[in-house]
Amino acid sequence: MRRALAFSSAVARRWMRSKSALFWTMVFPLMLLLIFGAVFGETRAQTYPLLVVNEDLYPSGPPTKLSWIFINTLNSTGVIEVHQVDPGQNLEEAMRSKGIYRALVIHRGFEEELTKVSVAGRVDVMVSTLEYVLANFGNRTSPEIRSQMESALSALKAFRANLSPGTVEVTYVRDPNDRASSAVEGVIRSFLAAFNLRVLGAKESVMLSPADLGFRRTMPIDYYLPGILMAFVMTNGVLGVAPPLAEWRKSRQLKRLAITPLKLSELLTGFMLVQVLMSSVLAVLLVAVGWAVFRPSFTLNPYALALTVVASLFFTSLGLLIGSALKELEAVVAASNVIVFPMMFLSGAFWPLEFAPPIMRAIAGFTPLYYFAEGLRSVGIYGELGPSLTAFAIGLVASPVLLFVGSSLLERELAE
Amino acid sequence: MGNKGYAVVAEDLVKVYGNRIRALDGVSLQVRRGEVFALLGPNGAGKTTLVEIFLTLRRPTSGRAYVLGEDVLDKKGRSVVRERVGAILQESESFELLTVRETLRLYGRIYGADAKRAEELIELLDLRDHADRLYGKLSGGLRRRVLLAAALINDPELVFLDEPTTGLDPASRREVWGLLRRMRREGVTVFLTTHYMEEAEALSDRVGIIVNGKIVAVGSPRELAERYGGAKTVRVSGLRPEVAEELQRELGEARVDGDELVWTASDRSEVNRIVQTVIAASPEAMVSVRNPGLEEVFLRLTGRRITEEGGIA
Question: Are residues A126 and A156 in contact, defined by beta-carbon separation less than 8 angstroms?
Answer without folding.
Answer: yes
